[in-house]
């Protein structure tokens, strides 16, 4: 069986069973693999051995491909061979002998409590820029941005979750928000009093620009749902204006989680708060907490940097 024909047949599976972005990435990975096999003089799938797959992964790594991308190439190969096994059980599966490359661990960016307060307690301005005259348009933008920033931090939302909020997802009286996370998974998260106050200030301004059929909580100036890219731009503007640094919406989520964990020490509650499927994902915030402790120790403990006293040579005898 020719490799090119197998990949072409698998393309139908990719289209039907995978999200468009994942399918596109897998196609690219498999075509890279096909080109590699052609360089090795291999045209038929029966000739592919586990060592060929390992060589492909090693070569990609030598080219500077990131570990995360290598893991995706690995996943594409495993998916292809699973499909082959269903169609042709007699064919060997060399991919089962591959070891998944270990993912490099990157701790998320986060703000200190003081930085979060500096960010959110500063004067309100549109898009994080200098203060503007309070026209109806700038009043709408200022109240929306304030409510949005407070809610991102208060409820540790993903930016995709924020822009998906509809009016009926918000319970102002009960201080709760219904959120739809990854995979459409629903969870209820609390909303802090400062965020509730900001939302109550924003809602009349929202009503003045909203189109009748629009259910979205956060709107653009034309009355439509605010986009992810617009939120990213606004958050970055606030970060540069108030903190002198670039800022991503996910940094506010990481910061809220870290601050909650530092205060409560309850990892399971933080897991529910963030909507993580497994506790292992949430556990990375314990590393942040340990980093915070180490930084405090290094800056405050009187013997953190002091060299140990030199021993008397006679005492060593």
From TrEMBL:
Superkingdom assignment: Bacteria
Domain Tyr recombinase: 106-298
Gene3D superfamilies from the UniProt entry: 1.10.150.130, Intergrase catalytic core
Residues of the active site: 158, 182, 250, 253, 276, 285
CDD domains: INT_XerDC_C
Keyword Cell division included in the entry's annotation: yes
Domain Core-binding (CB) as annotated: residue spans: 1-85
Major location (coarse): cytoplasm
GO cellular component terms, semicolon-separated: cytoplasm
GO MF entry, a single one: tyrosine-based site-specific recombinase activity
Compartments, as annotated in UniProt: Cytoplasm
Keyword line: Cell cycle, Cell division, Chromosome partition, Cytoplasm, DNA integration, DNA recombination, DNA-binding
GO biological process: cell division; chromosome segregation; DNA transposition
Xref: Pfam families: Phage_int_SAM_1, Phage_integrase
Keyword set includes Cell cycle: yes
InterPro entries according to UniProt: CB, DNA_brk_join_enz, Integrase-like_cat_sf, Integrase_catalytic, Integrase_recombinase_N, Integrase_SAM-like_N, Tyrosine_recombinase_XerC/XerD, Tyrosine_recombinase_XerCD
The protein's role, per its UniProt record: Site-specific tyrosine recombinase, which acts by catalyzing the cutting and rejoining of the recombining DNA molecules. The XerC-XerD complex is essential to convert dimers of the bacterial chromosome into monomers to permit their segregation at cell division. It also contributes to the segregational stability of plasmids.
Subunit structure: Forms a cyclic heterotetrameric complex composed of two molecules of XerC and two molecules of XerD.
Family: Belongs to the 'phage' integrase family. XerC subfamily.
PANTHER family reported in the protein's UniProt record: PHAGE INTEGRASE-RELATED, TYROSINE RECOMBINASE XERC
The protein's name in its UniProt record: Tyrosine recombinase XerC
């Amino acid at each position: 069986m020719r490799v090119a024909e197998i990949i072409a047949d698998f393309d139908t599976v990719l289209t039907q069973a995978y999200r468009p972005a994942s399918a596109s990435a897998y196609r690219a990975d498999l075509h890279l693999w096909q080109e590699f096999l052609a360089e090795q003089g291999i045209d038929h799938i029966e000739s592919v051995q586990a060592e060929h797959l390992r060589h492909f992964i090693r070569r990609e790594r030598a080219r500077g491909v990131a570990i995360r991308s290598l893991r995706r190439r690995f996943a594409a190969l495993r998916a292809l061979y699973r499909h082959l096994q269903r169609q042709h059980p007699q064919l060997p599966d060399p991919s089962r002998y591959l070891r998944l490359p270990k993912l490099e661990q990157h701790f998320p960016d986060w703000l200190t409590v003081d930085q979060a307060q500096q960010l959110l307690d500063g004067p309100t301005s549109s898009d994080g820029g200098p203060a503007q005259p309070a026209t109806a348009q700038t009043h709408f933008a200022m109240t929306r941005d304030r409510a949005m920033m407070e809610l991102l931090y208060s409820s540790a939302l993903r930016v995709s979750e924020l822009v998906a909020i509809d009016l009926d997802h918000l319970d102002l009286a009960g201080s709760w928000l219904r959120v739809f996370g990854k995979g459409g998974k629903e969870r209820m998260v609390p909303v802090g009093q400062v965020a509730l106050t900001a939302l109550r200030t924003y809602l009349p301004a929202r009503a003045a620009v909203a189109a009748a059929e629009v259910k979205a909580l956060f709107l653009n100036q034309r009355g439509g749902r605010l986009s992810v890219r617009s939120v990213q731009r606004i958050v970055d503007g606030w970060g540069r204006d108030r903190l002198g640094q670039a800022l991503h919406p996910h940094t506010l989520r990481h910061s809220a989680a870290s601050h909650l964990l530092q205060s409560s020490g309850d990892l399971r509650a933080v897991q529910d708060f963030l909507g993580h499927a497994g506790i292992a994902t949430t556990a990375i915030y314990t590393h942040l907490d340990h980093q915070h402790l180490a930084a405090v120790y290094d800056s405050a403990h009187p013997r953190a940097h002091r060299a140990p006293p030199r021993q008397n040579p006679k005492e060593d005898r």
